[in-house]
Structure to design on (189 residues):
């Protein structure tokens, strides 16, 4: 590579001698970056979605290439977020593509030291059995003066930040129907 080739390839030289004196366009762009294309341009399809992290409901565009999620960006057509995402929403691609993502039910028995895989139906039955047992053991029909209580203090709910308003509504209805009083959401804590 000669000196002249080196100088002509230098962005400052292109900026001072070309049509881009502020260095915001072609002068600042290298040959390598000029050849790059966005993952969104090469995607096979795009689906609109909602960010799963909080109850705000920011719109997302999910780009798919070869059956795999290739990019997730804010949806500019969303009246809520207008194409913007918070840092968690911007990183939501890793939520679905991370090799560390758990895709099976994991269970560690009491006093156990190892995790084991469980069938989803078995895990749901275990949860239901434990909820019903806790409810039966701690149910209070009336207080000391005979006033009706119809409650249990043995069950509570702490919702996560990834739940949306509809999920929180259903959880509140479910736990209230079971007689639980302590129903809270992480967003308020």
């Amino acid at each position: 590579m000669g000196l002249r080739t080196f100088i002509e390839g230098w962005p400052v030289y292109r900026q001072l001698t070309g049509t881009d004196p502020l260095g915001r366009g072609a002068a600042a762009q290298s040959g390598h970056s000029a050849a790059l294309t966005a993952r969104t341009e090469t995607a096979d399809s795009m689906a609109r979605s909602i960010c799963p992290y909080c109850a705000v409901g920011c719109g997302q565009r999910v780009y798919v290439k070869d059956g795999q999620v290739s990019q997730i960006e804010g949806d500019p057509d969303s009246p809520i977020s207008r194409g913007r995402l918070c840092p968690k929403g911007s990183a939501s691609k890793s939520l679905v593509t991370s090799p560390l993502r758990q895709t099976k039910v994991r269970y560690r028995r009491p006093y156990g030291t190892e995790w084991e895989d469980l069938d989803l139906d078995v895990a749901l039955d275990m949860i239901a059995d434990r909820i019903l047992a806790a409810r039966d053991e701690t149910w209070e029909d009336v207080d000391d003066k005979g006033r009706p209580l119809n409650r249990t203090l043995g069950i509570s709910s702490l919702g996560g930040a990834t739940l949306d308003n509809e999920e929180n509504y259903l959880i509140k209805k479910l736990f209230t129907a079971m007689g639980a009083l302590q129903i809270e959401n992480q967003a308020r804590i």
The CA atoms of residues 151 and 177 lie 9 Å apart. The first strand starts at residue 45 and ends at 50.
